[in-house]
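hiii so um. not sure if this is the right channel but i have a protein structure encoded as tokens and i wanna go backwards to a sequence. like what aa goes where. can anyone help
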């Protein structure tokens, strides 16, 4: 992981999340996903369509999604930002961190 932990800012409110992430497309290698302002989540991973919805609850990004025909269920994730990068950890913030880079606005 590049950068120090101090360079990441934890997102705690829905308003801050929407300002930083909603309406943006993020990429992890060849894969991408878009967090839509209207609560939809779309993207493509390993050639499969990602389709879902998101809400913000108790300081966590909560998403329900399918990837292709696989039901991914619900996950509650912590969100941190650093410039155009977003670091998220599933399982209520206890999962392994993943870093995605946003396309320019």
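sure thing!! here u go:
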């Amino acid at each position: 992981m590049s950068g120090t932990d101090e360079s990441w800012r934890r997102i705690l409110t829905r308003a801050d999340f929407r300002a930083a992430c909603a309406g943006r497309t993020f990429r992890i290698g060849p894969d991408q996903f878009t967090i839509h302002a209207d609560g939809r989540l779309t993207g493509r991973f390993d050639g499969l369509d990602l389709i879902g919805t998101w809400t913000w609850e108790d300081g966590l990004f909560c998403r329900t999604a399918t990837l292709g025909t696989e039901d991914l269920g619900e996950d509650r994730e912590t969100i941190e930002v650093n410039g155009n990068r977003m670091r998220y950890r599933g399982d209520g913030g206890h999962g392994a961190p993943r870093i995605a880079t946003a396309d320019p606005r």
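oh and The mean pLDDT is 95.
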